[in-house]
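Quick illustration for those who missed Monday's session on complexes.
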Amino acid sequence: MKETGKVYLVGAGPGDTKLITLRGLECIKEADVIAYDHLVNSELLVFARPETEIIYVGKKGYHHRVEQEKINQLLVEKAMQGKIVTRLKGGDPFIFGRGGEEALALAENNIPFEIVPGVSSAYAVPAYAGIPVTHRGLSSAIFVTGREDETKGKSQIDWQKLATASDTLVFLMGVKNLPLIIEKLIEHGRAKETPIALIRSGTTMEQETIVGTLETIISQAEQNKFKPPAIIVVGEAVNLRKKLAWFEKKLEVTPHPNPLPQGERGRGSNMIGILLLGHGSRQKNAEREFNLVSNVISTLIPYPVCQAVLGNGEPTIETAVENLINPDIKKIIVAPVFLFEGTHVQIDIPDKLNNLRLKYPSIEFEMTDCCGAD
Ligand SMILES: C[S@@+](CC[C@H](N)C(=O)[O-])C[C@H]1O[C@@H](n2cnc3c(N)ncnc32)[C@H](O)[C@@H]1O
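Prediction with S-adenosylmethionine bound:
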């Protein structure tokens, strides 16, 4: 009989891939199986071995109990087959991450496991927005879930105690319930002028922050069509952002998103190139149609675009990247595109990406989610 494997419950950090811990990275490299959530930056998967089985178990919004049980079962089954399983979870596995439930399921089935804490979005996302959640003389902090368990009928939060218990309140999963949160805070003693910040997709290139007061924030969020995932920070600490908003300043140097005239495409500093990477089919007509689509895309977006097909197709990834590179290119976004029969990212894409990173160390390579039939 095969020896039981092991499960690592790993915090993958809040979004910026570099915020994973060294131990977390080791667990990705070691894994036979990786099961990951929707808030995990999938670029981290490039560090997995080519033969690693990669399973997406994420689901936006509410995790139904059944689904959580299926995930627990999957971890137990794979470990019982003798596999090393890395369960990658957004942020920290034990902070609003249901990591405790997964660990209990493993313990009950006598599966060896390790917990690898991660950098939680609860404080890292405010930090990237220039908001220290605690600040001497100004603020202590409490972390709260803004999502209530709908099956429990009445609110689990004691709003009277919470509203004024701490200068800074940090809500996770609160966007859907923002009006309720605001109503309860004001009802239980927070001033309408209290500063509040909503930070979406923190620590990533898409980070977006809205700052207002308890009185104004709902209409601001509506105007901006503000969407989750987001962290909500309430309290005077939000004002420190005026001096400390460092990360969004860094994002401002990215190129102008409006299409440039054809002749200008590819010029300028900090330029980005796009590599469309077809994979998933050997059919000739699939590759021909991919060529057509790539040509259309390249006329629509302001960045230089090239394409490659994995496997025996032409051009190869190496030739495509050579064609794309010029002295201005600082970053190449690699977009895997399914050609007809593809169902998951081809296993050697992460390997190819690693090779490119080694070959061109001055260029940042970023992989997007897959486009095409799924
Ligand atoms: C199920 S909880 C998981 C929290 C996670 N375990 C952690 O420690 O960060 C999901 C919530 O985390 C917050 N979140 C996670 N990543 C985020 C990000 N990059 N930007 C903003 N909020 C994020 C959002 O409030 C989201 O609804």
